[in-house]
Design a protein that fits this description.
The complex is a heterotrimer of chains A (310), B (362) and C (359). Chain A is an all-alpha fold and 310 residues long. Chain A contains 12 helices and 2 strands; from the N terminus they run ααββαααααααααα. In chain C, a hairpin with a 2-residue loop joins β10 and β11. Classes of the chains: A mainly alpha (310), B mainly alpha (362), C alpha/beta (359). Chains in contact: A-B, A-C, B-C.
Chain lengths: 310, 362, 359
């Protein structure tokens, strides 16, 4: 029987393990794959692309109209209308490659992003709790923080995919529509601002997503909380600002706070931000910072709670 | 390690032989009724959702109460939009603004040499009596309005209807709560993979669908109408008027939404995402578009019902105070649609459910 | 257990090589004749469970392939590897799934119809409950959902909990139950309405040996009472103590039906081709040809992977493997691979020779 020894070909793996941080990236990759296996994720992505393409072509259209017909009037329903009046339609969106272009774009992407994150949170984090797959991850040689980090990475990829990346594309487009050398050299701060805005969004929203998903776990309450945060609070904020005449009430609108932080990164004039009146930039930063730190504290508390009850 | 129970099991065959029905034979109808009750109770078991709903509702109620306490619906005590005050100074109320624009007040300022507190078009012009009296006449209008009881009442009611009822309640509270409860009827069963226990019972599949719906409906109506009542009571007199006028629309809207989301819950594996996209994209975008596309939106009919109730029922309120609702359909049409939609959707759902197989664990 | 209760008639569909080569109806029909000419007739004469040429696709995956099966009573074991289609077959039998092609009926009623579920008790393989209920409350709710009155549900609940040995410990919440207790609760709810046909998907998994013995006794008692049980398992060993009658599934097909003896006999008559990878093929071929069971040896077969191997055609597989094992030890053969070449035979041999079905 000595011969059969040679049949046993098992041997230990001879590579070197790359440490738990790589495990977090692997976890993030797996999470994203899991997410994009559902058709809902693709349809939400399509919806966000719709917003992107609207901005993309509208920006082109505005430049085209103004360049081609700068001094002209066109006849609209029999009346001569100045071209300026046609492009005025797009003015609220500020499609001229300034700070507000990118601010507005990310503002409108927020509608899709919020639903996407409610969904991603429950798929990626909530279901790990409710289906008991957490022990599977934690039986690997990674810590709980690495697990959280992996999930955060997945969600932040998603956020950037919807906001920062298309915003940078819009910036590139704005430069190409203008004289590219002057635009890129003059407006490189805008690029920096977009990246900073993306960073703020990423950190805040990722932490809120993971924290709420860890807290409620199920899809339905998660969606309710998210809609409360991002739909109800803005409604209440605008009404409270109007009736109580205190612009600090707008600080309860988290999405608006992030918008303000972003615009301060983009160095926009606070007087040009709609809707007016708006609180100061530092107030928005303060509220955002508080939200982030309370999410971190909550996650810390949950991660240190040792037992996992499936 | 499993152990025998303390009393040894009796002789197997005799214990096993369940006598063929001591009392009544099993009845599918009774099973169905039990299922209605059971699916009602299942929602009670998911406390978390109840707490979150109550929390959101509390937020809305507090908001309404605060605004009401500050007289927020009343045009006289609302902040005036255009004033001479600078950006930092607190804005004055409409009543005071109207007072300030009165002929006497303006002349007093002019004679006291404080005409710089007036805006250019407000400065009285005694040298041109025609223009002066014309301007005074125009500035009289807001003052007259501030003194008109009926106008003030209508304004308060319509402001309340517009912000609280149409925007926050119809646009947020009602769709979100019905979505949560109605899609949860099957959604939570599928998420926890316990649907198999219902599907193996001797109840027709279409009956299971209907029973689940009927068991969920009280929750939707409780949170829909109960939420509406809470929001209205927080709104004082105006709110009570709104409750008296709008509750039928709230109920029928709840039922219509509930039937739709119940169907969504039965069809899709993650119904909430589909529902959210429907509510916060389709309903908000489509209902705001001009043309006939809005006829596809459920809230449009409920809003039409409310609009007609506010504008055509005694005491009538002026229709222009509720903007963007001028294309409302008639109440009869709205009623027909809102009653027919749940019935059609439920029948469709029963038909679909009786044909589809569920294998969420595969 | 009377003989007629154990009458199980099965005709394996498809092109299982074991069966096509040896007239299936003659070998597999233990007693009785093929199904009556009116299989849909809703009478007690109609077979309790009938699968007629049933196929099931999940998307592009073929989960069941032309299964024809008839159950009339007694205990039938359903064995097969993971993914062989056991659960799909059982779910169709109680109307959770619809066949893509063919028909499943219970006493003449379509299994998809809700009335069929009155005759069938189902113990699913999934481990999900209303976790916040106690075991007793859960079973009671299930009884109520069968359409019984309160009092009726009460005593039925107590009776079935007693039967599965859970009567004294069913008041805790389900989420705190051990795996064995959960299995018993699942079994209890299947017995509630005293069904004629019990479909048990992996009822023995996760149960300790003592509990297993108790449950096996319970199954036997149920069969003695005239119930028909269809029990699936990965392990033939567990079922062997319970019943002699098995259905072996492999890759969505029924590989063999009958008593274990019948299947073994059938295998004995059925030559099997075995691929053997060794270093000295010609020498080994010479040794193999000397064995009495070997019919032919191909030393240079055309194989899919292009390797060098022997293909041996042997008459009696069981005897052949015994002899070959002895030969390999005596001659110190370095056997790299040993594999029966047809799948059904592969699966059946796996079960009959022990192991998990993967030879």
């Amino acid at each position: 029987m000595a011969q059969t020894d040679t049949l046993l070909r098992y041997r230990p793996w001879r590579g070197t393990a790359r440490g738990p941080l790589y495990a977090a990236t692997a976890l993030a990759r797996a999470s994203l794959k899991l997410l994009f296996r559902h058709w809902q994720a693709w349809s939400l992505l399509a919806l966000s692309l719709l917003v992107f393409f609207f901005f993309f072509y509208a920006q082109y259209l505005v430049v085209w109209i103004t360049n081609l017909l700068a001094t002209d009037t066109v006849r609209f329903a029999g009346f001569p209308v100045s071209v300026r009046n046609i492009t005025r339609f797009f003015e609220p969106l500020a499609l001229n490659g300034t700070a507000h272009t990118f601010g507005n774009f990310i503002w409108y992407q927020g509608y899709v992003l919020v639903i996407f994150l409610a969904y991603a949170g429950s798929v990626l984090v909530g279901s790990d709790f409710s289906h008991g797959s957490l022990p599977f991850y934690l039986s690997k040689p990674i810590g709980r923080w690495h697990y959280v980090l992996g999930k955060c990475l997945a969600i932040s990829t998603l956020i950037n995919l919807l906001t920062t990346v298309p915003a940078i594309l819009l910036w590139v487009e704005a430069g190409l529509l203008d004289d590219w050398q002057t635009y890129y050299f003059k407006q490189w701060r805008l690029l920096l601002g977009i990246i900073c805005y993306g960073l703020v969004l990423t950190v805040t929203l990722t932490l809120i997503t993971v924290a709420t998903a860890v807290w409620v776990r199920r899809t339905v309450p998660m969606a309710m909380i998210w809609m409360g945060l991002f739909v109800l609070l803005p409604m209440l904020a605008s009404s409270l600002v109007a009736t109580l005449d205190d612009r600090r009430w707008r600080l309860i609108d988290l999405w608006n706070n992030l918008y303000l932080c972003g615009l301060s990164c983009l160095r926009a004039d606070s007087a040009t931000i709609r809707p007016q009146p708006q609180p100061e930039f530092w107030q928005a930063w303060l509220v955002t910072g508080t939200v982030v730190s309370s999410c971190v504290l909550y996650l810390r508390k949950r991660v240190q709670a040792v037992e996992i009850v499936a | 390690m499993t152990t025998h129970p303390t009393n040894p099991a009796p002789d197997p065959p005799s214990a096993l032989r369940l006598p063929p029905c001591k009392s009544l034979p099993p009845s599918a109808l009774r099973a169905w009724c039990v299922l209605v009750v059971q699916s009602f109770q299942r929602h009670w078991r998911v406390r978390q959702m109840g707490w979150v709903s109550a929390g959101l509702l509390a937020l809305v109620v507090v908001w309404v109460a605060v605004v009401t306490a500050r007289g927020g619906w009343d045009v006289a005590s609302q902040r005036a939009r255009r004033t001479a005050a600078t950006k930092d100074a607190p804005r004055t109320t409409n009543a005071r603004e109207a007072q300030r624009q009165s002929r006497d007040a303006r002349y007093t300022l002019l004679l006291d040499g404080k005409s710089d507190e007036l805006r250019a078009h407000e400065v009285p012009n005694p040298l041109n009596p025609t223009q002066d009296s014309l301007a005074s006449l125009i500035f009289e209008v807001p003052q007259a309005a501030m003194r008109d009881e009926a106008f003030l009442k209508s304004w308060a009611f319509m402001t309340y209807s517009r912000w609280v009822v149409m925007l926050v309640f119809m646009g947020f509270v009602l769709p979100l709560f019905t979505l949560s409860y109605a899609s949860g009827a099957f959604g939570t069963e599928r998420e926890s993979r316990s649907l198999v226990w219902l599907m193996t019972r001797p109840i027709p599949r279409s009956g299971i669908y209907l029973a689940k719906f009927l068991g969920t409906l009280p929750w939707c109506v409780a949170f829909g109408l109960g939420g509406f009542a809470a929001v209205c009571f927080a709104g004082g007199d105006v709110g009570r008027e709104a409750l008296a006028r709008f509750w039928p629309a709230a109920v029928v809207g709840t039922v219509a939404f509930a039937s739709l989301f119940h169907l969504v819950g039965a069809i899709f594996r993650r119904p909430v995402v589909v529902g959210l996209v429907y509510v916060f994209f389709f309903e908000t975008v489509v209902a705001a578009l001009p043309g006939s596309l809005k006829l596809l939106s459920l809230t449009f009919y409920a809003r039409s019902l409310m609009y007609n109730e506010a504008v055509h029922a005694e005491p009538k309120h002026p229709s222009h105070m509720l903007p963007a609702m001028t294309e409302a359909v008639s109440s009869e049409t709205a009623w027909v649609v809102l009653v027919a939609v749940p019935i059609v959707i439920t029948l469709l759902g029963m038909w679909l459910f009786s044909r589809s197989e569920y294998r969420d664990d595969v | 257990m009377s003989d007629e209760l154990k009458t199980v008639l099965g005709r394996a569909g498809g092109v299982s090589p074991l069966i096509t080569t040896s007239a299936p109806d003659k070998v597999l029909v233990q007693q009785g004749s093929p199904p009556a000419s009116h299989p849909r007739e809703p009478s007690s004469l109609a077979p309790l469970l009938l699968f007629e040429q049933v196929s099931k696709w999940y998307g592009s995956v073929l989960a069941l392939n032309q299964v024809t099966l008839e159950l009339t009573g007694g205990i039938t074991g359903l064995v097969g590897a993971n993914g062989a289609g056991k659960s799909t077959l059982l779910r169709m039998a109680n109307g959770q799934l619809k066949p893509t092609l063919g028909q499943v009926s219970v006493r003449g009623t379509d299994a998809w119809d809700w009335r069929a579920r009155r005759l069938v008790g189902y113990c699913p393989d999934i481990d999900a409950f209303y976790e916040d209920l106690s075991g007793r409350r859960f079973v009671w709710t299930m009884a109520r959902l069968c359409g019984y009155t309160r009092t009726e549900s009460n005593w039925r609940t107590e009776a079935v909990l007693e039967r599965v040995g859970m009567a004294g410990r069913a008041d805790r919440k389900l989420r705190g139950y051990s795996k064995g207790m959960r299995q018993r609760i699942k079994l209890a709810q299947a017995l509630l309405h005293d069904p004629e046909l019990l479909i048990l998907d992996e009822p023995l998994s996760g149960i300790d040996p003592i509990g297993r013995q108790e449950l096996l006794e319970l199954f036997q008692a149920l069969a003695a009472q005239g119930k028909c049980l269809l029990i699936s398992s990965h392990e033939l060993e567990a079922l062997e103590k319970l019943t002699n009658h098995v259905v072996i599934m492999a890759r969505g097909r029924i590989a063999a039906v009958g008593t274990l003896q019948q299947i073994r006999e059938m295998l004995d008559d059925h030559p099997v081709s075995v691929r053997i990878d060794v270093d000295r093929p010609r020498e080994v071929a010479r040794l193999l040809l000397a064995l009495p069971e070997v019919l032919a040896v191909d030393v240079a077969p055309k194989l899919a992977d292009g390797g060098t191997a022997l293909v041996v055609k042997a008459r009696n597989p069981k005897r052949f493997f015994e002899l070959f094992g002895r030969l390999a030890v005596e001659q110190r053969l370095d056997v790299r691979r040993l594999e029966p070449l047809d799948e059904s035979a592969h699966a059946i041999l796996g079960y009959l020779l022990g192991g998990s079905g993967r030879t």
